[in-house]
Amino acid sequence: MTAVADRPARSTASLRHRLAERGVDSSLWLMVPALVFALALFVYPFSYGIGLTFQPSVATQEQWGGGILANYVAFFRDPFVFDSIWITMRLALPAALFNVLASIPVAMVLRRRFRFKRFMTSVLVLPITLGTVLTAQGLLIFAGRQGWLNRFLIATGLVDQPVQLVNNYTGVMFSLIITGFPFAFLLVSSYLSGIDPSLDSAARTLGAGWWQRFRRITLPLLAPGLATTFILTFVLAFSVFPSARLVGDAMGSTRVMSLMAFRAFGEQNDYAMASTIALMMGVVELIVVAVVLAWRSLLYKGSTGGKG
Amino acid sequence: MSALETPTTMSDAPQGSPPRARAAAGRPPGERSLAASPSTWFVWAGMAAFLVFLLGIIVAVVVDSFGRQWFDTWLPLEWTTEWYASSWDRFDLTHVVGVTVGVALAVVVLSVLIGVPAAYLLARRNFPGKRLVNVLFLLPILMPPITFGIPLATVMYSFGLGRSVIAVILVNLVPSVPFVILTMTPFIEQINPAIESAARMCGAGMRQVFTRILAPLLVPGILAASILVLVRTVGMFELTFLVSGPQSDTLVVAIYRAMTSAGGGEARQLVSAMAVMYTATMLVMLVAALRFVNPTQLVAQVKEARDD
Questions:
Q1: Three-state SS for B78?
Q2: Which of A230, A268, B86, B203 has minimal Cβ neighbours within 10 Å of its Cβ?
Q3: Among A41, A112, A134, whose Cβ lies nearest the Cβ of B174?
Q4: Which GO biological process entries does UniProt record here (chain A) (predicted)?
C-alpha cells in the first residue's frame, strides 16, 4: 500500500491506487453483506417505524387531535401511557445502580486468590443462562405466598403472615437483580483486572489504609468502567418485559414502557402508536445514557488501567 | 491493543504477601486483615444471600416439576415424573424444540458468515466512514430490543412474513451480527498481520487468505462467538415474541405463552417441567461456552473494541 505512492501513473490505475491509499479497495466487498444486513433489517425498519409514528390511526386522531402528531399528543397526554416512563425509571434506575454498586465489593473480594475462585465466578455468572422467564417461574414458586422464603420467614418468627413478594414491584426488582447482577459483576471484575495491582501495592508502601487505597487509587481508575457498566446494566433493566408481566403487577406498579408498547402492538394492533411508544422508549433511554456518558467524560481515563 | 493488554490481565499479582506487610516498619502488623475483615464478611454474607435466592429459585422449579400436591408443605406430598411426559405432549415440544434448534443454528451460521468478514475489515483497515459503520453496528446492542423490534416486526408483518420461522431468524440476526463483530474484532487483532502479508507475497488472493490462513487461526474465536450467539438466541425473548406465532415459537416464548395463556395459565407443574428442560439445555451450552472462553477476559476485550 505504501509502495504505490511514488509511482506517477495517470491511467485508471491511478484512481484505484489513490483510493487504495485511503483504504478503499476491493476487499471492502467483505463489508457488503454486513452493510446490506444492517440497512435491510435495522436502518430501513427503523426509519419506517419513525415514519409510521406520523401516521396515526383515525381513532387516535379523533380522540387526541393534533393531526399527524396525534400519536405524540396521545403519548404525552394519556397518563396511562405517559406515567409508564416513571414506572420504568423507578424500576430500572435503582436496579442498575444496585447491581453496579454491589458488584464492586464482590469483584474486589473475588479478585484475591482463594480456593474456589473459578467455581464462585461460574456460579455468579450462572443466572445469565436462566433468562427472565425461568427466573419469573422460580420466583413465583420460591417467593410466593406458600413458597420456601415465606415459610422460612414464618418459621423463624420474623413475620406473622406471608409477605407479598411477587406480583408487585418487589418481585420485578428481585428478578432484575438476579438477572442483572451477574452481568454487572462480569464487567466490573474485568475492569478491575485491568488496574495495575502495583499501584495498590505502592500506596500501601506509602502507608495508605484500606479505605484510602480504595478511595484514592481504585475508585478513580474504576469510575469510567463503572459508568459503562451502569449504562449496559441500565439498558438491560430498562427493557424489562417478561418479568414485569409475570412477576409484576402488569397494570399497576410495574406497568413499564415495553409492556405499553406491546399492548399497542399485539393487543390493539395499533402499529403506529406501538412504534411511537417504542421510539420514545429509545429516546428516554438515550437521554439517561447521554447523561451518564457526559459525566463519564469528566473522569480520568489515563493509560494506567481501568480500561474505561 | 488487546494483545498488549493480555499480560496485565493474566498476571493477577499476589496481593501483598505477608512478609512484606510485616516489613512495613511503623505500621501495626496485620493492619490490612483487621481493617478489611468485617467488610469482607459483609460481602460474603451478601453473596451467600444471593446464592440462597438463586438456589431457591432453581431448586423450587425442579422440585415443583417432579412433585404432586404441593401446597402448604415444605415439600410435595408425592413425587412423579409424569409432568415431563404430559408437558411434552401438551405443548407439542417436539415441534417447539425443533424450531428452537433450527432457528438457533441458522442464526449462528448466518451471523458468523456475515459478521466475521466485517469484523476483519473493522479490525484491520481504515476506510472512509468507518466510524459511521461502527456506530451502525453498535446501535442494535445499545437500544432496547423493543425499540427496533416493534418497527421491524411491523415490516415483517407487512411483507407477509409474520409468524413464520424466517421472520424469527431474521429478527434474531439483528442483535447477533453486531455481537459477532464485537466478539471477533479482538480475536482478529491478535493475529499477526505479517502472516497475511506473507501469504499475499506467495500469491494468495483475498479468498485464499481467508480460507487458508485466517479461518483456521480464527476457529477458537468463531467457536466462542457461535456459542455465545447460540445462548443469546435460545434465550432471546422480546424479539422472537414479537414476530412468532404458534408454529414458530421458540422454547422461551412457548413457556411465556403457557404462563400467560387465558384462564390463568396452564398447570404450574407443566410450565415448571418445561422450564427445567430449558434451563438444562442452557446450562449444557454455558458449560461448553466456559470451556472455550474465559468470560471475564472476553468482556474486557469486547469492551476495548467497543470504545474505538
A1: strand
A2: B203
A3: A41
A4: transmembrane transport
CATH 1.10.3720.10 residue spans of chain A: 79-297
Q: What count of residues does chain B have? A: 308
Smallest CA–CA separation between A139 and chain B, in Å? 6
Which three three-digit cell numbers place residue A21? 491509499
CATH number of A79-297, picked from 1.10.10.10, 1.10.3720.10, 3.30.565.10, 3.40.1280.10 = 1.10.3720.10
Residues of A within 8 A of B76 (CB-CB) are none
**All domains of chain B, ordered by start, with CATH?**
32-80 (no CATH), 83-307 (1.10.3720.10)
**Cβ–Cβ < 8 Å for B238, A241:** yes
Which sign does the torsion angle of CA A298, A299, A300, A306 carry?
A: negative
Instruction: Report how far residue A134's alpha carbon sits from residue B60's, in angstroms, rounded to the nearest whole number.
Output: 11
CB contact under 8 A, B300 and A33: no
Q: Give the torsion sign (CA, B5, B11, B17, B19).
A: negative
Which amino acid, one-letter code, is at A257?
M
Q: How many CB atoms lie within 10 A of CB A68?
A: 11
A51 half-sphere exposure, CB direction, 13 A CA radius: 9
**pLDDT tens digits along A231-285:** 888 988 888 888 888 888 878 888 889 888 888 888 888 888 899 999 999 999 9
Q: Is A196 left (phi over 0), alpha (psi -120 to 50) or beta?
A: beta
pLDDT tens track for A196-240: 888 888 988 998 888 888 888 888 888 888 988 898 889 888 888
Cell 453496579 locates to: A100
Is the CB of A289 less than 8 angstroms away from the CB of B142?
yes
H/E stretch holding B168 reads: helix B165-189
Work out the pLDDT band at B176, boundaries 50, 70, 90.
Answer: very high
Q: What is this model's ipTM? A: 0.79
